[in-house]
Amino acid sequence: MKSATDKATSTKQIYLTRRSPNYWRVTFDNPPLNIFGPEAILQMKEIMAALETDEHVKVVVFDSAVEGFFLNHSDFLGKLDDLTGLPSGPTGLQAWPDILARLPRAPVVSIALIRGRATGNGSELALACDMSFASREKAILSQWEVGVGLVPGGGPMARLPRLMGRGRALEVLLGADDIGGDLAELYGYVNRSLPDAELDGFVDGLATRIASFDKRAIIDIKRLANANSLPSDVEIGAGWDACIASIVRPAAQERIKTLIERGFHKSGDVEERLGYYIGQLGR
Amino acid sequence: MKSATDKATSTKQIYLTRRSPNYWRVTFDNPPLNIFGPEAILQMKEIMAALETDEHVKVVVFDSAVEGFFLNHSDFLGKLDDLTGLPSGPTGLQAWPDILARLPRAPVVSIALIRGRATGNGSELALACDMSFASREKAILSQWEVGVGLVPGGGPMARLPRLMGRGRALEVLLGADDIGGDLAELYGYVNRSLPDAELDGFVDGLATRIASFDKRAIIDIKRLANANSLPSDVEIGAGWDACIASIVRPAAQERIKTLIERGFHKSGDVEERLGYYIGQLGR
Amino acid sequence: MKSATDKATSTKQIYLTRRSPNYWRVTFDNPPLNIFGPEAILQMKEIMAALETDEHVKVVVFDSAVEGFFLNHSDFLGKLDDLTGLPSGPTGLQAWPDILARLPRAPVVSIALIRGRATGNGSELALACDMSFASREKAILSQWEVGVGLVPGGGPMARLPRLMGRGRALEVLLGADDIGGDLAELYGYVNRSLPDAELDGFVDGLATRIASFDKRAIIDIKRLANANSLPSDVEIGAGWDACIASIVRPAAQERIKTLIERGFHKSGDVEERLGYYIGQLGR
User: Fold this and answer.
1) How close A267 gets to chain C, by Cα (Å)?
2) Successive 10-residue mean pLDDT values, chain C, 283 residues
3) What is A80-104 written as a DSSP string?
4) pTM for this structure?
5) Which candidate in A135, C101, C139, C169 could, as Cys together with A139 as Cys, close a disulfide (CB 3.0–4.6 Å)?
6) CB interface of C with A, residues 89-148, below 8 Å
7) What is the DSSP letter of C229?
8) Does A146 contact B212 at a Cβ distance shorter than 8 Å?
């Protein structure tokens, strides 16, 4: 494999580390906010292909090197064409939903280690992982999009009701508020929330354990569980199309503009307490 | 719209209040027990039509003005024909299941604010809402029907397993016991249970927040989440048919008669601790 | 009915007790480990047929007479042909998955009372029951199979994601660790975990309550809830086939052999802390 992360360029935002041939880590490192733009999608695409084709990897942990942010929303300062112009993937879906549709079907166990904000793309990635564990004190999950008149594009309408039931899913999606570790655990948004001091050890222990098991048995079990728990690519695609359609509407454009004026996309309170600030936009 | 609640008649049981063009409240007010008979269904039908067609409403909260009862079971003192003779609705289902099939698909976010007993119809309405929040101390949810030999008619066999998994759903349906706020939250029967003193403020805050968001984005998100989380009308109809068939069976008629003799349909202990009393009928 | 448990033979491993015509108990009693081999499957098959055909039984509770073990894994010292050579059942599935496919559809409410380890078959039986209640202190649930390179055969890939969502299901299946009462309740693996001293009384009270209700209403409610919550027989069959295929692979044979050398299939630490020991095999 020739990974984006092997290139020594200034745009490197995602690091792939092989703790062993069986156990990989993928670390989001785009300070200060871990915003997730088109370049990051391209890097994820190469990592996705590696996870699908490597014969040895059994488990991959996604984590962050950026204080306060696991993985953040899309880049709203760039051009929309930079996102929608990315080549489609093997599923026929556009680049980001393509990756999210493939990750749960990949022959490797994916685990999200969530410390800091998992906003928008970050939440969507966690939901596409096979498991997720959150810092009780420091994790915040958020599908914030409706707050600026957007429809989320990476599948949460498809995944959240299956995970936590319709009522709690609609609260996450339509309340669009910041959700901390305790509530995320109660709702089943994550597998479990652990005390921050225990999170790294727990996830590393679980990943090491799974990496010691037989890959063929892992694949068969995952494939059979997937049969009744995954949305179709068509359903994921419908969500993406609704997202793209929503971005260009005046209601969204105006709210995004106002939010940027208030400090969105910059280090500070708006990014840290996004749930609060989107609740002020339409009043 | 010309609503049933606009008519000043002595039979008015449901009040519609517009806190703003975007945020409505629907209040059940049929003291002393908030029993839900055919007249209330007709009033709900008009409110349902208004929720579907109004261009401005984004969120509706259902609550109660009757101490101790959010919304109660059907009227067992009236004639069955008064219920089954109501005209069918647009879905082709009879009046009550028609309303419950339409509410989750309506272009408005529905929230149940549960204080007091949500027995039978009350539980069914809460399950058809997009979200529900309960008083930790004062909410009681109950699908009590099997206790008198009945099958519930308003969809809980279709909704509960999707919401909380098959095992807990069957306990609710076949144990038929009173379920308080803590257990309702643990099982995901409601989104959350809150301390009674905080419930009104929390729900009002959430409703006000959602009412500030863009209606088009709300509708698209709800539509996409519905695609994988709602039962079909056929499934709802099958439950209704089983309910109607069960009412006329001697096993049900005898148990209902005995329960009425013990105080059912009157203010007092039987209505307040229905779970206990139905457990005594068949011994 | 003429049950296997009516035969006074030295191989009797499962006892059927009729507390009343409406309320039966089925007790696993194969000391010291409650291992579940082909003979036990035959005994369960007769009990299954009785549950399906008896006109009076409304509720059955499965429990254990063996200290420390609710119901354990398959017999790995016997020949595979003794298992796969059992005659298929009415569903067309092999004997064990046939029983597990029929139990949730049977016209009787099944409740698992879990005290001690529910490992492999024990977890699968609990998942096929309509409800399950666990000892908070003494229950341990485990789908341990991937730890020895096996795919579980009795349906957990089909049932767990529907019960607790995909993420937690994959953790149970691919982490393969021992899961105690608290976590089992949090994940919805069981309906509830109760203090050990209260468990028997609670389950007996619930079973007695359900046994007092009308059988016809029970059946109709269960049938309608099943319509949206059960996997197809084909899905159960696919899991079974993957299990049988996995057993003969060298990866599994070697791990099982090593585990037996370390104390598997004997009273002691390996059986009691199986989750720990399978985590050591591949390192």
Assistant:
1) 32
2) 42 96 98 97 97 98 98 96 94 98 98 98 98 98 98 98 98 98 98 98 98 98 98 98 97 98 98 98 89
3) HHHHHTSPP-TTSS-HHHHHHHHGG
4) 0.96
5) A135
6) 145-147
7) T
8) no
